[in-house]
Amino acid sequence: MMVSRLGDEHVMQEAAGATPDEAARAHGRVTGGEGPLEFRAFYAEHLRDVTGLAYTLTGSWHAAEDVAQEAFVRAYRAWSRIAAYERPDSWVRTVAANLAASRGRRLAAEARALMRLRSRRTDIAPDPLPEDADSFWAAVRRLPRRQGEAVALRYYSDFSVTQIAEAMRCAEGTVKAHLHSARQHLADALRPEGGTPR
Amino acid sequence: MTDPLEHRASRAAAAVRDRTRDLPMSDDVTRVRRRARRPAVAVLAVLLAAVLAVPVGLWLIGGGDSQIEFEPADPPVEESTPTPTPTPTEDVGGGIDPAQDPAPAQTSPEDPDAEELGDPEVEEDTDGPDGPEPVGDFSTAERSTPDFPYDGEGFAQLLDVRVASHEGFDRIVLEFGPDDDVPSYRITYVDPPVIQDGSGEEMRIEGAAFLELRMTPASGLTTETDDPSGWERTYDGPLRIPVGSGTVTELVRVDDWEANLSWILGVERTAPFSVEWLSSPRRLVVDVAHR
To answer: Which of A27, B55, B181, B190 is deepest in the core (most CB within 10 A)?
Structure first.
């Protein structure tokens, strides 16, 4: 197939055996409004935070790492387009939240099973969260999928209602409804033992 | 922030962010590149096989020279009737509701520079928006406005997408609002995979070659609406338009995000195309040669 410009595949192969400079040029070949934005720098800047977002919805650092990797793989493959965006990181967060909410539970279960079979990669997991935070996210994960996704984007990634509506491709009113029911569910779930009903 | 639940949510978020600092992560992108490459290699292998199956003669005519001049099979016929626009069948979505896609919250203030992007001297065709004369010169080379991707003021609102088959070429028309600014654009063949926004999923598009039409700032959605959702589609047609016959096999909206609007044309092969911005009505016209 003849194409009128160098495809990503060629760029990647070149980059693999290229000097750091050449590789950087290859990855920075797409220019945004403010000059070249390298995928490498973008990845380094946002990887941890996107992994954290995925953790809130999966409850497993292994699954979160998997989800984050997959989100960045997808960003890499769409990089010629999204590099020019004002906030390419919002794109990745959106994809990560989507993946974590839809596949997170299965991935987390797989990760736990793997851990039981061979106790490797335990070094990846940081210290457990404080009980206060852990129980909050555990309650979020028990919410209906869309509600959990909205809560994670709102409270972990500080998305506005408008941004969540963009990310979840639904109306702002729907987001507000999701957040409202989520808050009610969470308030119920997190009510201290023996506490009085609202 | 007096709400104790909000307070607890903030603390819980801060705790996770804090733990991410302990993650022994490598900032090396090699893994991402390796994973990204895997599906692409498979697609390339299939395409390579397809190319090898094509007779050598056709290869030389069709794609041997990316700058090859296109000669219409016949001179344009006056009364060539366009085939009717194919019936849309399904929307693109992948679990996403396309009726409620996001749109950038932008308005369209006057932009004195934008007018220069297009060619105001372009002669309007007289046979209506889908007249039979191909626009511009045909080649497979990338075509773009010099300022692409333009990220300043101004906006073009997509109203309609049409496709029609003519003598010697297929015509795709993207029509914008009558007073809209001219978006910067880039039209080029791209390699698969085509990644959809929002889901990041790979999209299946009919065709062997993929001609990407990118416009910015442009969108098929608007926030200037009384609709309680805050969004309204200004282009309310299908987001996937299969084309029954012809060189162009399918039109798919892949992206409408932060004023970046992308449609991809599935094409039978890397066929020469021509591009022109016409101003009444304001529209981007892409003609794809049949051979």
So the answer is: B181
Distance between CA atoms of residues B17 and B271, nearest Å: 50
Q: What is the pTM of this model?
A: 0.50
Q: How confident is the model at residue B3, as a pLDDT?
A: 81
- Cβ neighbourhood burial of B121 (10 Å; 0-12, 13-18, 19+): exposed
- Residue for token digits 């919805």? A57
Q: What is the pLDDT of residue A6?
A: 31
- Helix, coil or strand: residue B30: helix
What would the two tokens of residue B81 be?
């009737």
Spatial CB neighbours of B7, under 8 Å, sequence gap ≥ 6: B1
The whole-angstrom separation of Cα B189 and Cα A5 is 8
Contact across the interface for B8 and A173, Cβ inside 8 Å: no
Asked if B129 is an interface residue toward chain A (Cβ–Cβ < 8 A), one would say: no
Buried b (16+ CB within 10 A) or exposed e, A7-25: bbbebbeebeeeeeeebbb
Beta pairing class for B143-144 and B156-166: unpaired
Is A51's CB within 8 Å of B23's CB?
yes
CA distance A103 to chain B (A): 12
- Amino acid in position A110: E
CA A33 to chain centre: 25
Q: Which of B16, B27, B189 sits opposite A52 (nearest CB)?
A: B16
Predicted ipTM > 0.90: no
Amino acid at B236: D
Structure tokens at B88: 């849309």
Which of B24, B40, B151 faces A8 most closely, judged by CB atoms? B40
Whether residue A69 and residue B31 make contact (CB cut-off 8 A), yes or no, is yes
Own/partner contacts of A17-25, CB < 8 Å, gap of 24 or more, are: none
Q: Do residues B270 and B140 make contact, with C-beta atoms less than 8 angstroms apart? A: yes
